[in-house]
C-alpha cells in the first residue's frame, strides 16, 4: 500500500507587503494542509532575502514557491489557488510626523478643490450656462436676470448633491456599501501598476523564478 500523498494549498495575492527583508513562505501566501505540523514548518521556510542595498521590491514567480516546498518535501502535491506572480514590497517603517502629514493633506485638498472649481467653471463657460439661465429666467418671469436667481441657487445645490451621490462618499460616511468610483479607479490603477512591474521585471530577467534544473537558485537571492 503506497503512502498517502499530502496536498498543500497555497494562495498569494498579487501585491504583498512585508516588514522584514528576510522573507518566509508564510509571509507571502496563505497555506493550508491536512497535516498541521507540516503546514507550520512550511510557513517558516525561508523563501528569499531582499538585500538592504537596492530596490525594496521583488517579483517572485509562484514556481519558486513551489520549488522551495519541494526542496524540503519532494513528495508533496502543491496546488496554487492564487496569483502566478507575486510583487513583494518591503514596507517602509518610517512614517512622517503629524505636521508633515497635515501639510500633505492640506496640499492635496487645496489642489483638488482648485482643480475641480476650475473644471466646473471652464465647463459652465464653454456651454454658456450663465447666458442660458438668464434666457430661461427672462422667458419664464418676463424680467431681466441679475445673475443670482433661483436657477443659479438650485444649480449649485444640485451640483453638490450630484457630486456626493456620484462619489458615494462624504467624510467617513458612505451612502451605500458599493465601492466609490474613486476606489474603483484606484484599484484599476493598482492593477495597471502591478502588470507593468511584473512585465518589466520579467523582461529584464529580474523575476525570482526557478532555473532550468528546477532549483530556486542561490539562497538569499
From TrEMBL:
Q: Which UniProt keywords apply?
A: Membrane, Transmembrane, Transmembrane helix
Membrane-spanning residues: 102-123, 147-167
Report the superkingdom from the record. Answer: Bacteria
Entry keyword annotation includes Ubl conjugation? no
Provide the leader sequence positions.
none
User: Repeat: is it a keyword of this entry?
Assistant: no
**Designated name of the protein:** Stage V sporulation protein AA
Amino acid at each position: 500500500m503506497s503512502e498517502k500523498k499530502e496536498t498543500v494549498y497555497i494562495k498569494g495575492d498579487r501585491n504583498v507587503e512585508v516588514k522584514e527583508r528576510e522573507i518566509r513562505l508564510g509571509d507571502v501566501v496563505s497555506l493550508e494542509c491536512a497535516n498541521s505540523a507540516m503546514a507550520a514548518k512550511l510557513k517558516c521556510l525561508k523563501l528569499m532575502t531582499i538585500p538592504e542595498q537596492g530596490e525594496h521590491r521583488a517579483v517572485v514567480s509562484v514556481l519558486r514557491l513551489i520549488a522551495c516546498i519541494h526542496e524540503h518535501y519532494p513528495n508533496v502535491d502543491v496546488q496554487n489557488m492564487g496569483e502566478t506572480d507575486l510583487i513583494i514590497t518591503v514596507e517602509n517603517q518610517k512614517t512622517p510626523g503629524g505636521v508633515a502629514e497635515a501639510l500633505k493633506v492640506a496640499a492635496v485638498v487645496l489642489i483638488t478643490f482648485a482643480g475641480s472649481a476650475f473644471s466646473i467653471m471652464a465647463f459652465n463657460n464653454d456651454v454658456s450656462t450663465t447666458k442660458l439661465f438668464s434666457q430661461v429666467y427672462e422667458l419664464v418671469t418676463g424680467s431681466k436676470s441679475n445673475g443670482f436667481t433661483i436657477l443659479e441657487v438650485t444649480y449649485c445645490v444640485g451640483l453638490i448633491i450630484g457630486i456626493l451621490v456620484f462619489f458615494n462618499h462624504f467624510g467617513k460616511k458612505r451612502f451605500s456599501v458599493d465601492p466609490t468610483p474613486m476606489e474603483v479607479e484606484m484599484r484599476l490603477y493598482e492593477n495597471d501598476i502591478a502588470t507593468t512591474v511584473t512585465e518589466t521585471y520579467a523582461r529584464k530577467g529580474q523575476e525570482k523564478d526557478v532555473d532550468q534544473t528546477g532549483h530556486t537558485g542561490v539562497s538569499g537571492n
